[in-house]
Amino acid sequence: PAEVAELRARLRAVRHTVLVLSGKGGVGKSTFSAALAHGLAADENKQVALLDIDICGPSIPKMMALEGEQVHQSGSGWSPVYVEENLGVMSVGFLLSSPDDAVIWRGPKKNGLIKQFLRDVDWGEVDYLIVDTPPGTSDEHLSIVQYLSTTHIDGAVIVTTPQEISLQDVRKEINFCHKVKLPIIGVVENMSGFVCPKCKKESQIFPPTTGGAEKMCQNLNVSLLGKVPLDPQIGRSCDRGQSFLSEAPESPATLSYRNIIQRIQEYCEQHHSQEEKMI
Amino acid sequence: LPERSTNLLGVRHIVLVLSGKGGVGKSTLSTELALALRHRGHRVGILDVDLCGPSIPRMLRVQDRAVHQCDSGWVPVFVGQDRAIALMSIGFLLERPDDAVVWRGPKKNALIKQFVTDVAWGDLDFLIVDTPPGTSDEHISTVEALRPYRLLGAILVTTPQ
User: Fold this and answer.
1) Does the beta carbon of A239 lie under 8 angstroms from any beta carbon of chain B?
2) Are B88 and B46 in contact (CB under 8 A)?
3) Does pTM top 0.90 for this prediction?
4) CATH code assigned at B86
5) Which residues, if any, are the signal sequence (chain A) (predicted)?
């Protein structure tokens, strides 16, 4: 109860919270989280926070060109690391003395850090809190849902790639969301086709042998937010810590991302106004 | 040190397939490695300790099979007409394939220990252990449980970026 009150107080000034999940690893959760953060923060009037709770494999610092940054403490708590004035980031990556240090922790210790991230980080007033998660349905996922239940999660964006091996794990993630009563904003299908820049022919690098995310979403009655094609510039931007949306504004992948981001915003705003009506 | 169970005594070599990163092809490689070793005439087993996202059963087309118990523990699923690949995965213990295994560390650790000591592998030349991404409960527990045995080493999988 005291703990709950503490968390609630700290997160009181957060208007919208979006969890980025997948059952599967390597489908582009962090990539998408970073793009979502940049996309939302393009509006200077919006304050965006990106929380990376992938403790074993934190990708966000590198993707945001924040490697080597450290967390500063102040009277009001831990200070997020700011990419822009209106975009703050927190990750275990900032707590490591070297980027190659392995964080070999069992569940309880990981849960403790996640709680600290929520309780001790002075996020300030935030319009959007985006939480990037590791693959799976385990400690980190249970903990974040549990700790954030004191406040309010708008919903989850679930990321997949087209092949059945990914969808297999993503269906489990969708069931996890149902189990913990986490609303699903929708599914994003990454690596969805590749258009050769030379001959312009489209290939399916990860063939949707069982109908891809589209079929899965139909079957499970969840929204397909969009499909993002494979673009080598995405990987390159991630490695270089650049915003893909800014680096490749003409890419079909950018167009896809922007549409998806807009749909997420609409969902959150609509949700918010429905809540306000209820009050 | 954990006690040596007899179930792994007939296994000549144990190989771990690891990566920090998800989605780089650990399970794919584990499967292909098993198939290639079988092709060379070896007896192979795969232990799939990815509890949240077990991929191996589908990769070997045995996702609809079930495991049975015998006196020495679980009987692995034997793949193919020649039954030359033995497989153990949590995938076989799920009531429905879409059921999420939403377990915290301690419960995962208990099952992994059982997977290591309580599967009746018989005589194998190679046991390949496929792991989930990360460096957490599954990895710590697997390595701890395998310590008394002939752990050949780890293969690390990555992609270029």
Assistant:
1) yes
2) yes
3) yes
4) 3.40.50.300
5) none
ipTM: 0.90
The predicted-structure confidence for A224-264, as pLDDT tens digits, reads as follows 999 999 999 999 999 999 999 999 999 999 999 999 999 99
Q: Kindly list the strands in the beta sheet with A184-189, ordered across the sheet, starting from the edge strand earlier in the chain.
A: A81-84, A87-91, A48-52, A126-132, A14-21, A155-160, A184-189, A224-227
Q: Which range of residues forms the domain containing residue B88?
A: 11-157
> In chain A, which ranges are continuous DSSP H helix?
2-11, 29-41, 60-63, 107-120, 139-148, 164-179, 212-220, 232-240, 244-247, 252-278
Instruction: Give yes or no for A103 touching B (CB within 8 A).
Output: yes
Q: Which residues of A touch B98 (CB under 8 A)?
A: 171-172, 174-175
B108 at the A interface (CB within 8 A)? yes
Give chain B positions within 8 Å (CB) of A138: 51-52, 102-105, 108, 137
Quote the CA–CA distance of A91 and A94 in Å, as a whole number.
Answer: 6
Its CATH class, for the domain covering A2-277, is alpha beta
Sorted by where each begins, the domain ranges of chain A are 2-277
Chain A and chain B share a number of CB contacts under 8 A equal to 118
